[in-house]
C-alpha cells in the first residue's frame, strides 16, 4: 500500500504576505499525484460566516472550494522540468582568481562544481568586494513574482545576510503593474500605496448599483495568478446573470472579453487619453456631468476644462479630433459618453497592458480619475474596481470582497525590506544603466521616486542617485530573481550591461536554467516550494484569508537547497549565523511565524499544525463597510482624500511646484502625443514609417513572464504557441487579417518582430481579436538569444521595449504600446545564418533545453 | 446514470478541465480503468475554441470535448478484444489489461474521443475518472471547474436542465451522455447610424426573418447596435426601420457569425 498524504500549497504569485489559490496535493510514496481545489469547509475551526452578496434577485456566494488557475494545476510539472538546475555550476571561462571574461556571459558554458567549492567562491567574492570596493558594490536582485514563500525566501534572504556584513545595493521594487496609477493618479486622488481606487465592498456595490462596468484594458481571465484564480470570472458571470452590462475598452479581444464582453470598443494602444478627453468634451459641451460634485469635491477643474476646450493648445478635444487618434468613430465616442452619463458606471482593471504601462501612462490614469470625478466618484455604482490582488498590502481598503475578521501577517519572521532606510539602491527600471553605465559619485545616475513601490507620494519628489554618495559603483550581482530580461523594459540593454567589464561577478540562485541565469558566473540550485516546509499568509484569494502550513510535497531534486538554506550556509561561513534568524531551526521559525500571525488568538499551534492551516472567518459586520469612495462622496470634508487639499486635484499644486518645467507630466492631465522622453513612439510620428504597428503586450495569458513557459500541458493548449516548420514552438503574435493579407503573412507563419532596439520572433495568429495597425504578443517569454543583446527567438519582446521610462520624471516601465515592424521570415534561412542559436537542444514538450545547451559536460 | 453537463454560458475557456485531465492521468495508473496517458498530444478531454464574428463584435466559443459515454458505443462495437466495458452508472472505459492494441476503435469513434497510445500499445480515452467516482468524488476535470461550466452527476439530478440541452451529433443516435447547454450557435450583428449628424441611432427597429421560418425583432441599443444570437446557418432577410429615415433591407446567407458592419441610414 502506497504511503498517502495530502499537503496544502498556495499557487498564486503576488508577494510575500500575499499568497493565494491554495490547492490540496495528494501524494503517494513521495510523489505528487494530483492537485485539487482546497475544500474550505475542512479548514474552518469556528463559524466561518461564508459571505453572500445578494443583488437584483441573484446571489453570489463564497466558493466552497478554492478557485485555482491552470498554473496551480500544472505546478507539479515544473518540479521535474528538464531545465531544473540540479547542482552548483560555474561558467567555464570565469576564473575568480584570473580572467573573468565578462564579454562571454551568455555564450560560454558551465561546469558542475561541488557545493563546497561554490560556497568558497561566493564567500571569497563577497569578502573581496567588501575589501576592494565596499559592500554597496554588491547588487542584490530579489524581487518579482516569486513563488510565495516566507521562511525559505527568496525575497530578502541574501540581502539580509549581506546586511549583517555591512550592507548592499538594493534593486528597489518598482510599481510594475500599477505604473500610471502610481505616477499619475496618486497626484489627483492620493490613494497610497499604489494609486488605485478604494476597493472596500465594491463587489457588493457594483452588483447592487452599477448598470455598466467598463473593463478598460482589463482581462479578468488572464491575471488569474494574481489572486482570485477563476473567482473574478465567476463574478463576471454573476454580473451577466443580474443584468450588469460589461463593456471592454481595449485594442484586443482579450481572454476576458472573449467570453464576458457584452460590447467591445476597440481603441488603439495607448491612445485612451484621446478617447477620455473626447468623452469629457461631450460632457462639458452637453452639460452631462455633475458640476455640483466638482465644486465640492475637486479643485482645479477649470485647468482641465481649459485644456479640453483647447484653451492651452488651440485644439478642442472633440470626438472628431479623437477619432483618427484612437480609432474609435466619433459617433461611438458620443454614444459612450452619453450612455455613461445617464447610467451608473464603474471602471474595472486588472493592471498591465497598454492602458497603464506605456509611454506617459500617468495621463490615461489621471484622465480616468477625471472622468470618474465628473460622474461623482463614490456615488453608488460609480467607482474603480480591481479584479486581482484582493486585499493588496494587507489592506481592507484594497479588497472589494467581504473582508476577513483580521488580516494575518508574517512580519515577525520575514526579513525586513526597509528600502527607505538604505544607503544605496537602484530603481528596478534603471538597472541596465546602473550596471553598465559610466556613473560615478561625481557623475551619478539620478531619478525621482521609487525607493520602493507603495511609498507615499512625496517619494516622487525626491531626487535619488547612484552610486550613493561616497560609494563605489556596483561590481557584483547576487540575484535570486534572475529574470530581469523578461520582466522589465530594455532587456537587450540589460544583457549588454550584465556583460560589461564593470561587473566582475554574477551569482544567480534559481530553480531553472532560464533568462538571466544564462549570463551568470556562478549558479546555485534552488528548490521549488513543493520541496520545502513553509508557512504562508493567504490574503489575496478573493474568497477567504488563511494561514497555511505548507508541508513538503516531495524531496528536493539533485543538490538543490532553498534560498534560505543557501544563505544559512553563507552566514555560517561568514561567521554571522547567530544573527541570521538566530540560527534557529526552520520549524521554530514557522512556529514563531504562527505565533505572530494573528491566528494565535484563535487556535493553538498544535491545532494549526494538525489541520495544515487556519481559515479566517469573514467579519460579521462586513456589509456595514462603506463601499469604495462612498464616504468621500457623501462628505468630502469629513472623509478627505490623502491629496494636499483633501479633494480630487485636477490641478496638482505639488506637481507644479516640484516639476515646473515638466512638459510631459504637467500639473493637470493632458493628451501628450510626444515629448522629450518619447519623441517618436506613436503611429503619428516618423518612426512609424519603419515600424508601422503598435505592440500590445499584456500580462501573459499562458505564463507568468517566463515561468511556465516550459510547462508541457500549458504549451499544448491551442493558442499558447505556434509551431513553425522547424518544429520550434514560437510565441504567438496576433495580427489582424487585413494587415496580414497586406504583408503576405498567413496564419501560422513565423515572423520577425523588430524595431531599432533589436528583434524577436513570433508565430502569426491571424485573427479578428486584434485591431488593424496593432499586433499583440504577450511579454515575458523565456529568452532564447540569437545574438545576445540584439536578437531573440522566443518572443521575449521585453528586449525591444523602449528603454526610456514612462516620462522624464516618472520611472515607470514601458512594456506595451510601442512601435514595431513585423515581417514573415524563412526560419531555415535564419538557421543557416545563426546555426548555433537554431541548433540548441530542443524538447517539443518543454522548449529549448537551456541547461543542456549551456552545460560543458554534456559535450 | 451519470452524465456530464457542459454549459457554454458558464465556461470561461480557462482550460482547467483539460489540464486537470492530464494532472489525473499522466504518470498515474488507475486500474482497471486506465493506464497512464501520454504527457502531451492526446486529450481525453480537450477544450475546443471557435472564434465568432468580426471587429467589433467578436467572441470566442469554448467547448469541452470528451468521450460522450454513449449508450451505444460505436467504438466498443469495433473493438476486437472485448476491452470496452460499461459500468452500471453508464461510464464507458477501456480496460487496459484486455486491450490488445488493434486500435480499430480509434477511427470508429465518431467523436474522435479514443486515442492510440502507441508506446503502451493500447487504446485510451476518458474514463469519467471512474476511480474517483468509486470513492464518491467528482471527475478531476469537474472538480477543478470553478465556474460551473462542466458538471457531473446523476441524470435525474439534472433532469430539468437536460430538457433543453443538446448533444453532439445527435443524428447518429448513439445516445451520448455528455449534454451541452446554451451553445451560442451563430450571431448576426451590425450598427445603425445617421451619417448626416454623425450620430448612432438608438431605438431603430431591426427585424430578422429566416427564409421560410420565424421572425425576430429588436431595437438598436444606446450604441446603435443590434445583435441576433443563437441563430442557425441559413438564409435570412434583415430589415431596419427608424422614424425619419429610409428603411434598409438586406438578404443574408449566414454561414458563420457575422458582423454586417455599419448601416448609415438616409434621411427620409
UniProtKB/TrEMBL annotation, chain A:
It comes from the Bacteria. Residues 84-572 form the Molybdopterin oxidoreductase domain. InterPro entries: Asp_de-COase-like_dom_sf, MoPterin_dinucl-bd_dom, Mopterin_OxRdtase, Prok_Mopterin_Oxidored. Keywords: Metal-binding. Residues 694-805 form the Molybdopterin dinucleotide-binding domain. Pfam families: Molybdopterin, Molydop_binding. Gene3D superfamilies: 2.20.25.340, 2.40.40.20, 3.40.50.740, Dimethylsulfoxide Reductase, domain 2 (3.40.228.10). Belongs to the prokaryotic molybdopterin-containing oxidoreductase family. PANTHER family: DIMETHYL SULFOXIDE REDUCTASE DMSA, TRIMETHYLAMINE-N-OXIDE REDUCTASE. This is Molybdopterin-dependent oxidoreductase. It comes from Adlercreutzia faecimuris. The lineage of its organism: Bacteria, Bacillati, Actinomycetota, Coriobacteriia, Eggerthellales.
From TrEMBL, chain B:
Residues 2-31, 90-119 form the 4Fe-4S ferredoxin-type domain. Keywords: 4Fe-4S, Iron, Iron-sulfur, Metal-binding. Transmembrane segments: none annotated. It comes from the Bacteria. PROSITE patterns: 4FE4S_FER_1 (PS00198), 4FE4S_FER_2 (PS51379). Pfam families: CarboxypepD_reg (PF13620), Fer4_11 (PF13247). PANTHER family: PROTEIN NRFC, PROTEIN NRFC HOMOLOG. This is Carboxypeptidase regulatory-like domain-containing protein.
Amino acid at each position: 500500500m502506497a504511503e498517502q498524504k495530502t499537503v496544502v500549497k498556495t499557487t498564486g504569485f503576488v508577494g510575500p504576505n500575499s499568497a493565494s489559490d491554495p490547492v490540496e496535493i495528494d501524494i503517494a510514496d513521495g510523489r505528487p499525484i494530483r492537485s485539487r481545489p482546497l475544500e474550505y469547509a475542512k479548514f474552518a475551526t469556528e463559524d466561518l460566516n461564508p459571505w453572500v452578496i445578494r443583488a437584483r434577485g441573484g446571489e453570489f456566494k463564497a466558493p466552497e472550494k478554492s478557485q485555482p488557475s491552470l498554473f496551480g494545476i500544472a505546478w507539479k510539472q515544473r518540479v521535474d522540468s528538464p531545465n531544473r538546475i540540479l547542482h552548483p555550476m560555474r561558467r567555464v571561462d570565469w576564473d575568480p582568481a584570473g580572467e573573468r571574461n565578462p564579454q562571454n556571459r551568455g555564450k560560454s558554458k558551465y561546469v558542475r562544481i561541488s557545493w563546497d567549492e561554490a560556497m568558497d567562491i561566493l564567500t571569497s567574492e563577497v569578502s573581496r568586494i567588501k575589501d576592494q570596493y565596499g559592500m554597496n558594490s554588491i547588487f542584490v536582485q530579489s524581487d518579482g513574482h516569486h513563488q510565495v514563500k516566507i521562511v525559505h525566501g527568496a525575497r530578502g534572504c541574501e540581502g539580509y545576510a549581506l546586511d549583517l556584513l555591512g550592507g548592499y545595493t538594493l534593486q528597489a521594487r518598482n510599481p510594475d503593474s500599477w505604473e500610471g496609477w502610481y505616477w499619475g493618479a496618486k497626484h489627483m486622488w492620493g490613494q497610497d500605496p499604489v494609486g488605485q481606487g478604494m476597493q472596500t465592498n465594491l463587489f457588493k456595490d457594483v452588483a447592487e448599483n452599477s448598470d455598466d462596468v467598463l473593463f478598460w484594458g482589463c482581462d479578468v481571465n488572464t491575471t488569474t495568478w494574481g489572486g482570485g484564480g477563476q473567482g473574478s470570472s465567476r463574478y463576471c458571470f454573476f454580473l451577466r446573470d443580474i443584468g450588469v452590462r460589461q463593456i471592454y475598452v481595449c485594442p484586443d479581444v482579450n481572454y476576458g472579453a472573449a467570453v464576458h464582453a457584452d460590447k467591445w470598443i476597440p481603441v488603439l494602444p495607448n491612445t485612451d487619453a484621446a478617447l477620455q478627453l473626447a468623452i469629457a468634451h461631450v460632457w462639458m459641451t452637453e452639460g452631462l456631468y455633475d458640476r455640483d460634485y466638482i465644486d465640492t469635491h475637486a479643485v482645479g477643474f477649470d485647468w482641465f476644462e481649459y485644456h479640453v476646450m483647447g484653451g492651452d493648445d488651440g485644439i478642442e478635444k472633440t470626438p472628431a479630433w479623437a477619432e483618427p487618434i484612437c480609432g474609435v468613430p466619433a459617433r461611438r465616442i458620443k454614444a459612450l459618453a452619453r450612455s455613461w452619463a445617464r447610467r451608473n458606471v464603474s471602471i474595472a482593471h486588472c493592471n498591465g497592458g497598454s492602458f497603464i504601462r506605456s509611454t506617459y501612462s500617468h495621463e490615461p490614469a489621471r484622465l480616468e480619475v477625471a472622468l470618474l470625478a465628473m460622474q461623482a466618484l463614490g456615488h453608488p455604482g460609480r467607482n474603480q474596481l480591481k479584479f486581482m490582488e484582493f486585499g493588496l498590502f494587507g489592506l481592507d481598503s484594497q479588497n472589494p470582497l467581504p473582508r476577513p475578521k483580521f488580516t494575518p501577517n508574517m512580519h515577525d519572521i520575514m526579513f525586513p525590506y526597509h528600502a527607505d532606510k538604505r544607503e544605496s539602491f537602484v530603481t528596478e527600471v534603471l538597472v541596465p544603466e546602473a550596471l553598465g553605465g559610466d556613473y560615478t559619485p561625481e557623475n551619478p545616475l539620478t531619478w525621482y521616486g521609487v525607493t520602493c513601490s507603495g511609498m507615499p507620494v512625496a517619494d516622487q519628489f525626491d531626487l535619488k542617485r547612484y552610486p550613493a554618495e561616497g560609494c563605489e559603483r556596483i561590481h557584483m550581482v547576487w540575484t535570486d530573481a534572475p529574470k530581469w530580461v523578461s520582466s522589465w523594459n530594455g532587456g537587450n540593454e540589460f544583457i549588454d550591461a550584465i556583460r560589461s567589464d564593470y561587473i566582475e561577478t554574477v551569482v544567480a540562485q534559481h530553480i531553472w536554467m532560464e533568462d538571466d541565469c544564462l549570463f551568470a558566473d556562478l549558479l546555485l540550485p534552488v528548490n521549488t516550494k513543493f520541496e520545502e516546509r513553509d508557512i504562508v499568509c493567504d490574503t489575496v484569494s478573493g474568497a477567504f484569508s488563511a494561514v497555511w502550513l505548507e508541508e513538503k510535497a516531495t524531496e528536493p531534486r539533485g543538490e538543490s537547497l532553498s534560498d534560505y538554506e543557501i544563505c544559512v550556509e553563507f552566514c555560517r561561513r561568514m561567521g554571522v549565523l547567530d544573527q541570521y534568524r538566530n540560527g534557529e531551526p526552520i520549524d521554530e521559525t514557522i512556529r514563531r511565524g504562527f505565533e505572530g500571525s494573528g491566528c494565535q488568538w484563535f487556535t493553538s499551534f498544535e491545532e494549526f499544525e494538525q489541520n495544515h492551516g487556519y481559515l479566517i472567518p469573514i467579519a460579521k459586520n462586513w456589509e456595514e463597510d462603506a463601499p469604495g469612495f462612498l464616504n468621500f462622496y457623501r462628505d468630502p470634508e469629513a472623509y478627505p482624500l490623502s491629496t494636499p487639499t483633501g479633494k480630487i486635484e485636477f490641478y496638482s499644486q505639488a506637481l507644479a511646484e516640484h516639476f515646473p518645467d515638466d512638459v510631459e507630466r504637467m500639473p493637470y492631465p493632458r493628451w501628450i502625443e510626444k515629448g522629450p522622453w518619447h519623441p517618436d513612439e506613436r503611429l503619428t510620428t516618423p518612426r512609424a514609417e519603419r515600424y508601422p504597428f503598435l505592440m500590445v503586450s499584456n500580462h501573459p495569458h499562458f505564463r507568468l513572464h517566463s515561468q511556465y513557459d516550459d510547462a508541457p500541458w500549458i504549451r499544448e493548449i491551442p493558442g499558447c504557441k505556434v509551431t513553425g516548420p522547424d518544429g520550434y514552438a514560437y510565441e504567438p503574435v496576433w495580427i489582424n487579417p487585413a494587415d496580414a493579407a497586406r504583408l503576405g503573412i498567413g496564419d501560422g507563419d513565423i515572423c520577425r518582430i523588430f524595431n531599432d532596439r533589436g528583434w524577436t520572433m513570433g508565430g502569426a495568429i491571424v485573427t479578428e481579436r486584434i485591431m488593424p495597425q496593432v499586433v499583440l504578443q504577450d511579454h515575458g517569454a523565456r529568452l532564447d538569444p540569437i545574438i545576445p543583446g540584439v536578437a531573440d527567438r522566443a518572443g521575449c519582446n521585453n528586449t525591444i521595449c523602449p528603454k526610456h521610462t514612462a516620462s522624464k520624471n516618472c520611472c515607470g516601465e514601458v512594456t506595451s504600446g510601442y512601435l514595431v515592424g513585423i515581417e514573415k521570415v524563412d526560419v531555415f534561412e535564419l538557421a543557416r545564418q545563426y546555426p548555433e542559436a537554431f541548433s540548441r537542444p530542443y524538447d517539443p514538450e518543454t522548449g529549448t533545453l537551456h541547461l543542456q545547451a549551456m552545460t560543458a559536460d554534456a559535450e | 446514470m451519470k452524465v456530464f453537463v457542459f454549459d457554454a454560458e458558464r465556461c470561461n475557456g480557462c482550460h482547467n478541465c483539460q489540464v486537470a485531465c492530464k494532472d489525473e492521468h499522466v504518470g498515474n495508473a488507475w486500474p482497471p480503468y486506465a493506464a497512464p496517458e501520454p504527457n502531451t498530444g492526446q486529450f481525453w478531454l480537450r477544450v475546443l475554441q471557435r472564434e465568432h464574428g468580426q471587429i467589433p463584435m467578436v467572441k470566442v466559443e469554448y467547448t469541452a470535448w470528451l468521450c460522450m459515454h454513449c449508450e451505444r458505443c460505436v467504438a466498443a462495437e469495433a473493438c476486437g478484444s472485448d476491452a470496452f466495458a460499461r459500468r452500471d452508472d453508464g461510464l464507458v472505459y477501456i480496460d487496459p489489461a484486455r486491450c490488445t492494441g488493434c486500435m480499430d476503435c480509434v477511427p470508429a469513434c465518431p467523436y474522435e474521443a479514443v486515442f492510440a497510445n502507441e508506446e503502451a500499445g493500447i487504446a485510451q480515452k476518458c474514463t469519467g475518472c471512474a476511480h474517483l467516482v468509486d470513492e464518491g468524488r467528482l471527475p478531476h476535470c469537474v472538480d477543478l471547474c470553478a465556474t460551473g461550466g462542466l458538471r457531473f452527476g446523476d441524470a435525474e439530478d439534472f433532469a430539468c436542465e437536460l430538457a433543453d440541452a443538446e448533444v453532439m451529433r445527435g443524428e447518429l443516435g448513439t445516445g451520448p451522455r455528455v449534454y451541452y447547454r446554451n451553445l451560442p450557435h451563430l450571431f448576426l450583428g451590425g450598427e445603425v447610424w445617421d451619417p448626416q449628424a454623425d450620430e448612432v441611432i438608438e431605438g431603430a427597429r431591426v427585424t430578422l426573418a429566416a427564409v421560410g421560418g420565424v421572425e425576430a425583432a429588436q431595437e438598436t441599443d444606446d450604441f446603435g447596435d443590434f445583435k441576433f444570437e443563437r441563430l442557425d446557418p441559413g438564409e435570412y432577410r434583415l430589415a431596419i426601420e427608424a422614424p425619419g429615415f429610409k428603411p434598409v433591407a438586406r438578404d443574408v446567407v449566414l454561414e458563420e457569425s457575422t458582423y454586417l458592419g455599419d448601416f448609415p441610414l438616409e434621411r427620409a
